[in-house]
Amino acid sequence: MKPYDPQYVNTVTKYVFVDSPDTTPQDIAIAAYEIAKGVMIKETCFGCQITGSPEDVDRIIAPLRKLDPYRIYVKDRGFPPGDARRCRANSGGARPGYLGHEYEMALVRYIAYGLEQTDHMTPEELKAAAGQEKLMQSAFDVAVLEHLIEEE
Amino acid sequence: MAKVFIYPATSLILSDLVARFGHQPLGSAISIREHIQTSGFDSPPIQMTSEDPQKGLKWAAVEVPSGIRGRLSLYGPLVEEAEAAIIIDEPDLAFGCMGCERTNELLCFMLREKDIPRLELNYPTSREEGVTFVAAIKEFLVDLGGEYE
């Protein structure tokens, strides 16, 4: 154990992902740099990471979302960019969270289509599109359980 | 604005949709951020300290492995704070931070036991399911009082 002196206290870091035929990660990064005003932007292969005060990060993310509203996704990140405990420059290989992002990025095309379709729906249409609430799997029937026990 | 717990707690899709429809997503990143921005003692290369499994005792019994208790010290406060929850059933995404199945089972149990609005669904596997997925989440979040960004 050793004393721990945290960095980037009172900041938030957010990922901005893009998966679009019209907007590239570079477009996102350049647009973010243009309005950064000293906030830390890290360009990545999927978009960028933004680290700063919550107000500054929200100020940058709002216009970024407008570049391609259905295909830009934002998520909180716990660690700041380059943190020695997570950065792959230190640990080698993909960081643990990358695998989760890789999995979900394969599904976002369905989400983009869903966002586009539901954007102009009326509440009634939305309810119809949402369909039935997923039913919980019913508990095991006691009679069947008793029958199985008796068979044993 | 309601605080909505998302499961998987590392989900990009759920985190984005909850924020997009005007609420605050509660996921792993919130707890991790608080954890790493608080000064104290560190046990490199492990971020958990010996205090974390003790904090987890509030949500799991002492005979539960310390790894689960340590994880619950991160998720437990979020579940207590949550005003609603969105759960994806049986997600394939169960590695990395969400890689402990017993923690995940306990987490879902805690969310289902808590008397809060809850939406359970599966990941979409087609464009049509994508529409249903987004519509269900949007309707759920609008009912909570959210507004589209």
Written account of the structure:
The complex is a heterodimer of chains A (152) and B (149). Chain A is α+β, with helices and mostly antiparallel strands and 152 residues long. Chain A contains seven helices and five strands; from the N terminus they run E-E-H-E-E-H-E-H-H-H-H-H. Chain A has a four-stranded antiparallel sheet with strand order 3-4-2-5, with helices on one face. The radius of gyration of chain A is 22 Å and the shape is extended. Chain B has one domain. The mean pLDDT of chain B is 88. A four-stranded parallel sheet of chain B has the order 2-1-4-5, with helices on both faces. Chain B has helices at 12-20, 28-36, 51-55, 66-81, 101-113, 127-143; strands spanning 3-7, 24-26, 40-42, 84-88, 118-121. Chain B is an alpha/beta fold and 149 residues long. At the A-B interface, strand 1, strand 2, strand 5, helix 4 and helix 5 of A face helix 1, helix 2, strand 3, strand 5 and helix 6 of B. Strand 1 (2-4) of chain A pairs antiparallel with strand 3 (40-42) of chain B, so a sheet runs across the interface.
Question: What is the CATH first-level class name of chain A?
Answer: Alpha Beta
- Separation, N- and C-terminal Cα atoms of chain B: 12 Å
**Number of E-type strands of chain B:** 5
* Helix fraction bin of chain B: 40-55%
Helix content estimate of chain A:
40-55%
| Spatial gap, N to C terminus of chain A | 55 Å
Radius of gyration of chain B, in Å, reads 16 Å
State the gist of this model.
Chain A is of the alpha+beta class. Chain A has one domain: Alpha-Beta Plaits (2-Layer Sandwich).
Kindly list the characteristics that best describe this protein.
heterodimer; A: 152 residues; alpha+beta; Alpha-Beta Plaits; B: 149 residues; alpha/beta; four-stranded parallel sheet; 6 helices; 5 strands; globular
Layout of secondary structure:
The complex is a heterodimer of chains A (152) and B (149).
Chain A: E1 2-4, E2 12-18, H1 25-34, E3 40-43, E4 47-52, H2 54-67, E5 72-77, H3 88-91, H4 96-105, H5 108-118, H6 123-130, H7 142-151
Chain B: E1 3-7, H1 12-20, E2 24-26, H2 28-36, E3 40-42, H3 51-55, H4 66-81, E4 84-88, H5 101-113, E5 118-121, H6 127-143
Parallel strand pairs in B: 1-2, 1-4, 4-5
